[in-house]
């Protein structure tokens, strides 16, 4: 059952718990932790994109006053060979570096200043090697290898799809073919990567990390260090943003942990912004050669795509190209589909998930092709989409696709895609903007309207765990394997637990993710925080409620079915005066008054792992209205409207914050952000002076309408909300810019749409700015087709 509501910002009356602490400077980040004797870790990075390492001499570096230790890859390989093999790239390069920024030596010192000074004394002899910086060139015969030990620059090749694509292309009345490209980008969290490793008595380790998956980090560190997982504790304090790049294991994580054990002293690594550009995972960069086949009435027949994914110098830990491929068909009836995914090595920073993680690219391709098809047919792009959208009565809808290339299948669980598009179009007043567009062109102004619809997998498995316990004061304490990086988990999880238990949210304390508090967990990424982490909290709270009532039944000598848990008290039905507060219950349990199976019940806690078996799919529609200046290439967003369906919303203001933040990321990726390399593999945009990020000047007000199609796959009915603002924004803005400049013959085939690039498109289209004014986009397309 679907419901609709307008965004009001009022929520459910529960204010964000985190805000006061964070906004008043009382957050507790890795850089704020004070542990006596902590050493600072600094890393020497390769200035070359590809080179042999002939010699590394750290003698002078180690002699600097205040330096505790210096080592290179050869020394590390002798002393900790497992560490060098723990991930797809060595913790420190030994004989060869494959991207500018790759670590090859490390220094430990009393503070970061001394460590950086010592790195200046390091002597390294390199032998530069040929660089391959383009995915297409990397696959050409005779192309230099990105790494000498590899026989080929092809990392992997997979084909996913279903149906008879060749037959559909042959019978199609219309086939639209394009080459589309998305530039390289990376996330920019306020806090860089950070880790503090503290050795413990007995050979164990406590790690404080700005990380999205503490249990996965624990497992990786234990394996690399030869420890049992119980010997490694990972805690995530306040984390200043993640966006995907603070997942996985980086060389600095391994180095900090090993060096802490090696020296017997705490070791901290804090990434600076330039290091972030040179070593933290990149993403987005892809090239698509795509064909879309349809009938003249607009009914889709097939989509055929060849995808080149530039993965950088080492294999990606997440198959971004496959995520793109399984996202591409979107919310449409598409009888046949094929995507050949080629992951290609180049001498660039390795890729990894970044807000959307392959989904924005897939949506960009599909939604651009829908607009290109609409122009070919002379059809309204909204009508074309409505004609092909999957209907709510068809849910659950099996697409025929494998889930990310694995054994599971993609099945859309719930949603009303036509209603989302209709709601966004009506709220944006697209008809009114079309009339304004015609008037503006008579004045020499270039307005455009862009639409994009999307569906995304959220709440992926395999499971998430949470613990709920009654503490000695009678408060409920909740811990989860799903840590927060700004999403508001303290607020949301408190609400979920309170609702399940029947207590006020103020009586619930949500603690930082800590592997000592929850025995297992997966993490926060892929829009799974509430759908998975929240569901685990709900299930743990439900079980804790059962145990509380069972214990109270023994203490009050009343049957469980006659008890209620309301407002922090256990009450007896029909006996208003007979009650037991949770604080009193906890006290009496501690005194051993309750027995179960001949043993005293002294503590009430529940740990639950929630495993739904399949992801749930959020959806929505975006409408962007822009004005483009053909003389400067500048794009101004005049209006932005979102219709968003993430199932049942636990806390609407938090959802709206996620959507607005996501749109900001999408706008930035569509118009501004790009990591640019030169022919020698040097990153030219390695500071925020060159890498453009949006400000309030570029960010329009985002109008949000909510639809709620609860999923049947989890007890909350909730779907993910963290990436839905980003995924369709790139396509909506690209469609709007092309719509604005269509009379000039401009076709948007590449992102980002920087001013220089837009101006170049206008020039390449062969018509001076101002010509064609008053000609509508569909009329102009018809005129070009004769």
Could you characterize what this model shows?
- A hairpin with a 5-residue loop joins strand 14 and strand 15 (300-312).
- It is globular and about 85 Å long.
- The protein has 22 helices and 32 strands.
- Strands 4-6-2-13-10-11-12 form a seven-stranded mixed β-sheet, sandwiched between helices.
- The protein has 786 residues and is α+β, with helices and mostly antiparallel strands.
Looking at the structure, what is the overall shape? globular
Mean pLDDT over the residues: 93
What fraction, in percent, of the residue positions are helical? 25-40%
Please tally the helical runs, counting DSSP H or I stretches of 4 or more residues. 22
Q: Which structural class matches the secondary elements?
A: alpha+beta
Total number of beta strands? 32
Side by side, the strands of the main sheet go 4-6-2-13-10-11-12
Strand coverage percent: 25-35%
Regions with little confidence, pLDDT below 50 for 5+ residues: 6-11, 768-786
Radius of gyration: 28 Å
Distance between the termini: 48 Å
Biggest sheet character: 7 strands, mixed
Please provide a brief summary of the model.
The protein has 786 residues and is an alpha+beta fold.
Characteristics:
786 residues; globular; 26% strand; 7-stranded mixed sheet; single chain; alpha+beta; 6-stranded mixed sheet
């Amino acid at each position: 059952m679907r419901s609709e509501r307008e965004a009001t910002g009022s929520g459910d009356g529960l204010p964000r718990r985190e805000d006061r602490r964070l906004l008043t400077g009382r957050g507790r980040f890795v850089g704020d932790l004070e542990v006596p004797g902590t050493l600072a870790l600094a890393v020497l990075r390769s200035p070359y994109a590809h080179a042999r390492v002939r010699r590394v001499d750290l003698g002078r570096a180690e002699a600097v006053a205040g330096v505790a230790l210096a080592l290179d890859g050869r020394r590390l390989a002798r002393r900790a060979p497992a560490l060098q093999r723990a991930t797809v790239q060595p913790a420190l390069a030994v004989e060869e570096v494959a991207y500018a920024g790759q670590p090859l030596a490390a220094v430990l010192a009393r503070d970061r200043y001394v460590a950086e000074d010592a790195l200046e004394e390091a002597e390294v002899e390199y032998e530069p090697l040929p660089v391959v910086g383009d995915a297409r060139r990397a696959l050409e015969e005779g192309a230099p290898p990105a790494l000498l030990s590899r026989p080929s620059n092809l990392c992997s090749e997979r084909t996913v799809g279903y149906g008879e694509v060749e037959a559909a292309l042959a019978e199609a009345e219309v086939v639209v073919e394009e080459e589309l490209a998305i530039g390289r980008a990376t996330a920019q969290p306020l806090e860089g990567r950070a880790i503090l490793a503290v050795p413990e008595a007995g050979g164990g380790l406590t790690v404080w990390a700005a990380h999205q998956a503490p249990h996965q980090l624990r497992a990786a560190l234990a394996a690399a260090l030869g420890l049992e997982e119980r010997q490694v504790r990972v805690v995530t304090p306040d984390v200043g943003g993640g966006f995907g790049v603070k997942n996985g294991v980086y060389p600095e994580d391994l180095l900090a942990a090993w060096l802490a054990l090696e020296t017997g002293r705490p070791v901290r690594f804090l990434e600076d912004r330039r290091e972030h550009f040179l070593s933290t995972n990149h993403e987005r960069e892809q090239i698509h050669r795509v064909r879309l086949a349809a009938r003249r009435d607009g009914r889709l027949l097939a989509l055929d795509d060849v995808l080149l994914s530039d993965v950088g110098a080492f294999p990606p830990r997440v198959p971004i190209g496959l995520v793109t491929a399984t996202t591409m068909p979107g919310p449409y009836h598409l009888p046949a589909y094929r995507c050949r995914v080629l992951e290609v090595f180049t001498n660039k920073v390795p890729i990894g998930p970044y807000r959307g993680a392959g989904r924005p690219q897939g949506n960009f391709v599909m939604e651009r092709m829908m607009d290109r098809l609409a122009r070919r047919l002379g059809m309204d792009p909204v009508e074309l989409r409505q004609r092909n959208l999957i209907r709510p009565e068809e849910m659950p809808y099996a697409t025929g696709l494998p889930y990310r290339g694995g054994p599971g299948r993609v099945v859309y669980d719930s949603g009303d895609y036509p209603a989302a598009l209709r709601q966004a179009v009506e709220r944006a007043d697209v008809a009114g903007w079309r009339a304004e567009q015609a008037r503006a062109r008579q004045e020499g102004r270039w307005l455009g309207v862009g639409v994009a619809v999307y569906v995304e997998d959220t709440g992926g498995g395999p499971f998430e765990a949470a613990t709920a316990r009654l503490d000695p004061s009678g408060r409920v304490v909740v811990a989860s394997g799903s840590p927060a990086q700004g999403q508001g988990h303290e607020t949301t999880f408190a609400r979920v637990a309170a609702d399940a238990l029947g207590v006020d949210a103020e009586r619930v304390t949500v603690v930082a993710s800590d592997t000592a508090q929850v025995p297992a967990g997966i993490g926060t990424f892929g829009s799974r925080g509430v759908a998975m982490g929240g569901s685990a909290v709900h299930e743990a709270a439900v079980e804790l409620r059962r145990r509380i009532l069972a214990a109270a039944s023994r203490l009050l000598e009343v049957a469980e079915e006659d008890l209620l848990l309301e407002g922090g008290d256990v009450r007896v039905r029909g006996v208003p005066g007979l009650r037991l507060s949770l604080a009193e219950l906890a006290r009496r349990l501690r005194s051993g008054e309750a027995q179960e199976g001949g043993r005293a019940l002294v503590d009430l806690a529940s740990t639950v792992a929630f495993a739904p078996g399949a992801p749930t799919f959020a959806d929505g529609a975006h409408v962007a209205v822009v004005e483009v200046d053909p003389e400067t290439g500048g794009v101004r967003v005049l209006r932005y409207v979102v219709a968003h369906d993430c199932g049942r919303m636990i806390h609407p203001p938090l959802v709206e914050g996620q959507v607005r933040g996501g749109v900001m990321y999408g706008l930035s990726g569509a118009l501004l952000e790009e990591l640019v390399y030169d022919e020698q593999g040097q990153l030219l945009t390695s500071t925020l002076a060159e890498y453009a990020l949006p400000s309030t000047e570029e960010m329009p007000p985002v109008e949000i309408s909510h639809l709620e199609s609860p999923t049947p796959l989890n007890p909350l009915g909730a779907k993910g909300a963290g990436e839905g603002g980003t995924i369709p924004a790139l396509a909506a803005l690209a469609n709007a810019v092309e719509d604005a400049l269509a009379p000039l013959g401009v076709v948007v085939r590449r992102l980002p749409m920087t001013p220089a690039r837009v101006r170049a498109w206008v020039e390449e289209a062969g018509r001076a700015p101002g010509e064609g004014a008053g000609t509508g986009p569909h009329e102009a397309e018809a005129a070009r087709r004769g």
